[in-house]
Amino acid sequence: MPVFSQRDAFFVRAIAGLALLATAPTASAAEALTASEAEQLRFEIRQLKLLNQSHIQKLQQMENRLNQLEPSAEPSLSKSKSSTVASNTAPTKRSADPTASVENILLEEHTLFTDKFTFEVGMDYTHYDRKQLALDGFLALDAIFLGDIAVDDINADIFTWDFNGRYNINKRWQLGASIPFIYRTSTYQKNFVTDSDAATGEVRTIIDGSTDGYGLGDITLTSAYQLFAETQSRPDIVWNLSVKAPTGKDPYGVDTKIVEDDNGNRLEIPKQLPTGSGMWSLSTGLSFLKTTDPAILFANVGYTHNFSKNFGGDTGEIRLGDSFNYGVGIAFAMNERMSLSMALSHRINLESEQNSSKIIGSDGNAATFTTGVTYALSNRLSMLTSVGVGLTPDASDFSIGIKFPYRF
């Protein structure tokens, strides 16, 4: 629609006036029609004046808006250039408010510093099946330090209930504690040659016996400190430190029992299984996390030192071998509530010592592949699940875990 200026409006009114003057001398028969046309022209002129005034106001508003934007265009461009230069060093924000799925990944694989306090309840089930006595974690402690116990097969099941608390001192430093309760059961089997037959060869029989143990495990105190925040060229880096106290029942000096079959074959097994290592340990390491849309990459590396302790009697001084561990993984936020992760972890144990003498075969090499799913049940409560499969003989056959962290 055309825009009318004040000059145009005046021109329209002048034309209308001339038209009225031109019709004045006409016959009286046409005067009534001329008066009607004049009234219609006056109405149209008023409408055009109103429309023209509205357009003039809109033009004025647009000019004022343009005048406001033009002075800030140059500083805005300068600011954009400076922010581009600094983007490689400034901390990268994942989002103004990270989704629950991303926060769950940080809880499970890294460290989350946003909440003041987090309380977590978890349950883990681990199964071992060995065809010979292997020195690995609790399985080693079941036998090697209890005397000359020889078995051919061990089936072990370990249930662990963890109660964890994590408190953020500030946005970079976190303190925590983990209190485990453990129930363990193991079945030992041994093969015996009971007779010899020329036709069939050796005649064997199998003796088995079971035992269990339960109670408080070793309590762990933890500290996590963010060394560097994530940028476009650097991952988020957190330094982890933990101390494990020997609060569980140790495996040294445990009484044994004899299982005997009808043929007099005997199998010696412990009466009760331990729930702890019996000594202090100190662990330190670094964890890394980098967001690369749509994936999140994470890794960790750590070292654990076990302090020696003298248990007296025939056991004497025991020092478990130190261990080195590392892991890598990738996670995907499927939506705002659910995420999927996959990780490979590897732990190498050095040889243990008894009375300053190394125990042959006490070193270990355990590699595990783990996949997990996290789901945010609410804004504060989440569910973290994981399934692990052992890749080496010293690793557990498989493990299943579930955790419920609640963020305050």
Automatic annotation (TrEMBL):
For this protein, the record's InterPro entries field holds: FApF
The residue range of the signal peptide is 1-29
Please tell me whether the keyword Signal is annotated for this protein: yes
The UniProt record lists the keyword Zinc-finger:
no
User: Where are the residues of the annotated region Disordered?
Assistant: 68-100
Q: Where is the composition biased (Low complexity)?
A: 69-87
Protein name from the UniProt record:
MetA-pathway of phenol degradation
Name the keywords, alphabetized: Signal
Highest taxon of the source? Answer: Bacteria
